[in-house]
Structure formats: C-alpha cells, structure tokens
Design brief:
This protein is an alpha/beta fold. 33% of the residues lie in helices and 21% in strands. Strands 1, 2, 3, 4 and 5 form a five-stranded mixed sheet that branches.
C-alpha cells in the first residue's frame, strides 16, 4: 500500500539482526520508501493484521518469537507461506500484489524456497 500522505511505498522488513535491519531501512528510505521493521515471525504476523504493505523484505533465518533462543530457516519459510496464504491475490499479470523479497547470509541453497 502506498502511503497516501507522502505518496511513498511502504515496506515491511523482517530481520533479527538489528544492525543489518538499520542498514536495510536506510537503503530503502534513501530510495523513497517508508519502512516498518520487526525482528520475528510472530511480530510480522501481528503487524500484517493491522497494516498494509507494498512489499515485504524478509530474512529467512529469523526467530519465531522474541523469546526464541535461536533463529531458524523454518521460521522464515513458514512466515513466507503464511503471508502467501493470507495475501493470495494476484494482479492481471499474475504477480502477487504483496511482493516478498527474501534474503539470508546463512542459508544454503534449497530447491523449495
């Protein structure tokens, strides 16, 4: 969803590394996007209930909740699946309205991502 007051795209960034999240937020802001950051799968699902976004940029290796001990790839993959289930709509060109971009510095290549 475009921020109508500022006419800017709004991005959801899901990243548990706060330093990297700040870098991504700075980059997206410099490109003219508004950014909302959350560090966990749980917080991402909560914010998706109340806000709309143009796209989501998510780290695949995240924590499920703030109380989680270790980030897991399964948490990111599950989040991606839950976003697709919640926002299945596609445009006339057959692209999802809510685009998901994934990133990770720790994940090995897998065929089902």
């Amino acid at each position: 969803m475009v921020n109508k007051k500022k006419n800017r795209h709004v991005a959801l960034v899901v990243e548990d590394d706060l330093e990297l999240a700040d870098e991504v937020k700075d980059l997206l802001s410099s490109l003219g996007h508004d950014v909302l950051h959350v560090p966990t799968q749980e917080e991402a699902l909560e914010i998706l209930e109340t806000k709309q976004f143009c796209f989501a940029l998510l780290d695949l290796q995240i924590k499920v909740s703030p109380d989680s001990i270790k980030p897991r790839v399964e948490a990111g993959k599950t989040l991606m699946k839950r976003i697709r289930e919640r926002y299945p709509r596609r445009n006339p060109d057959d692209h999802h309205y809510l685009q998901i971009l994934t990133m990770s510095g720790y994940v090995k290549e897998t065929p089902d991502v």
